[in-house]
Design goal:
CATH superfamily: P-loop containing nucleotide triphosphate hydrolases
Mean pLDDT: 92
Largest sheet: 6 strands, parallel
Number of helices: 4
Shape: globular
Structural class: alpha/beta
Strand content: 25-35%
CATH class: Alpha Beta
Low-confidence stretches: none
CATH architecture: 3-Layer(aba) Sandwich
Order of helices and strands: EHEEEEHEHEHEEEEE
Strand order of the largest sheet: 5-2-6-7-1-8
Distance between the termini: 52 Å
Number of strands: 12
Bound molecules: adenosine-5'-diphosphate, zinc ion
Number of domains: 1
């Protein structure tokens, strides 16, 4: 049955590292471009893995993105004509983003946010739990556990240097299932 849907919504793509969030985000961006939509892509400036001005997946798929240090900078770059606004690594962006996303979705923009739902201790990461609560559509992806081969919903930190953020160091992390995931004590 066809159900009429008004434009403007929030989609969240979450999961651990290596679960394919960036691939899925890039796939949605490419399809929106094929549909001739005006798309703008942002990423936090602190995420400089592979490329400073692109989002890149671990499988080397790429798409251009505007690096922004905070919500203020994002607002300065925001194109009022954009029909689709995509954000990668949304867990690193500040709380100021939440009302901006709401406003965009309310005025008809399709907002797509990708990000880690849990940090490497298995705790909710940054603004992601709020975005998940506010989203119309949530895609939760899983990777493959590097210990047992099961589906993995968590990110294991292999290097313990303290702090929640250790950016751009894929080799410092591994996807793990809940049984194989270990948190430092
Ligand atoms: P994310 O954005 O969630 O970190 P990416 O889209 O960057 O994920 O990368 C997903 C790709 O990573 C997969 O298609 C696969 O090629 C690769 N990969 C590497 N390690 C794993 C793993 N443990 N489980 C699943 N995919 C992995
Ligand atoms: Zn496992």
């Amino acid at each position: 049955m066809f159900v009429h849907q008004r434009q403007g919504s929030l989609e969240v793509i979450c999961g651990p590292m290596f679960s394919g969030k960036s691939e899925e985000l890039i796939r949605r961006i490419k399809r929106a471009i094929i549909a001739k939509q005006k798309v703008q892509v942002f990423k936090p400036a602190l995420d400089d893995r592979y490329d400073a001005s692109a989002i890149a997946s671990h499988s080397q798929r790429k798409h251009e993105a505007i690096p922004v240090k905070n919500t203020e900078e994002l607002l300065r770059h925001l194109d009022p004509e954009a029909q689709v606004v995509a954000l990668d690594e949304a867990q690193f962006l500040d709380e100021g983003l939440i009302p901006i996303i709401e406003e965009l979705a309310n005025r008809g923009v399709r907002v797509i946010a990708g990000g880690l739902d849990q940090d490497s201790n298995g705790e909710p990461f940054g603004i992601m739990p709020i975005l998940l609560a506010k989203a119309e559509y949530v895609t939760k992806l899983q990777a493959i556990c590097m210990v047992c081969g099961a589906l993995a919903g968590r990110t294991q930190r292999m290097v313990h240097t303290g702090g929640q953020v250790l950016v751009g160091a894929a080799e410092a992390y591994e996807a793990r299932c809940r049984h194989c995931h270990e948190t430092p004590h």
